Amino acid sequence: MINLDDPLIHGYLLRLIGEDGITLIRNMPEGEVTDEEICNTLNPLRTISKAADDKVKKLNIEIKAAKEKGEETKKLEKDVKAAEKEAETAKANLGDEKEITLNTVRKILFILYENKFTICHRERDANSGWLTFRWMLNMDGIYHQIEREKKKLYRNLVKRKEYEDNNIFYVCPQNCLRLVFDEATETEFLCPLCGEDLVFQDNEQFKELLDQRIEEFEETA
After folding, report:
1. Nearest to 1 by CA among 137, 199, 111
2. Which ranges of the sequence are coiled-coil (predicted)?
3. How confident is the prediction along the chain (221 residues), in pLDDT tens digits per residue?
């Protein structure tokens, strides 16, 4: 199991799937599980509350059916009152539990799948044709993926530094846009959006920041 408290891994996953995604990984059941089973694991109190509500509904249906048949319902009515009390208690216990919805779970799982961090098997019911997706974590390649992302970011930083070095920039004082010198001359140094006079932008400080980031990457390479 990967160390989710490792700053490098935590930061990477936070950008990829957010805090809910990290919570999902921390609490993912062992083996192959469905998205609904994962959702129930992430929302234990809500799962209990739903089960209690379902029990009340089931008992009410049984009472209605018994009455239609002319059968005794006292025991069922006693059971439904007890079930309603359980449901109320379950709702009261929800407290501040943050809900992670089934749609959120599915979105996180598919993002992980796209990045090869989950294995997904599909099962089709022979009678209904309904597809069931079964998921299992596979985070073995995360360090390789992080290294690829770092190299990609490094290349982008170098390209951006070259772009900043090789151009002179003019900006709109209303923050409409930023143009290189040739583009600014085409608009006669007027903002094409609001008509304000464009002003020269000194990008030396930004280039220093880029140099610093590039140096940091090279030191850890």
Report:
1. 137
2. 49-100
3. 688 888 889 999 999 999 999 999 999 988 899 999 999 998 888 878 778 888 888 888 888 888 888 888 888 888 888 888 887 877 777 776 788 999 999 999 999 999 999 999 988 877 887 888 999 999 888 988 888 888 999 999 999 999 999 999 999 999 999 999 999 999 999 999 999 999 999 999 999 999 999 998 888 76
The closest alpha carbon to 133, from 124, 141, 144, 146, belongs to 124
- pTM as predicted: 0.66
Q: How far apart are CA 91 and CA 155, in angstroms?
A: 52
- Domain assignment present for 99: yes
For 45, other C-beta atoms within 10 Å of its C-beta total 15
- Do the domain assignments include residue 150? yes
Q: Which of 84, 60, 82 is nearest to 73 (CA)?
A: 60
Spatial separation of the C-alpha atoms in residues 150 and 166, rounded to whole Å: 24
Domain boundary among 139, 162, 183: 139
Last residue of a domain, one of 139, 166, 193: 139
Say if residue 51 is in the same domain as residue 105. Answer: yes
Query: Do 135 and 213 belong together in one domain?
Result: no
Quick check: helix, strand or coil at residue 178?
strand
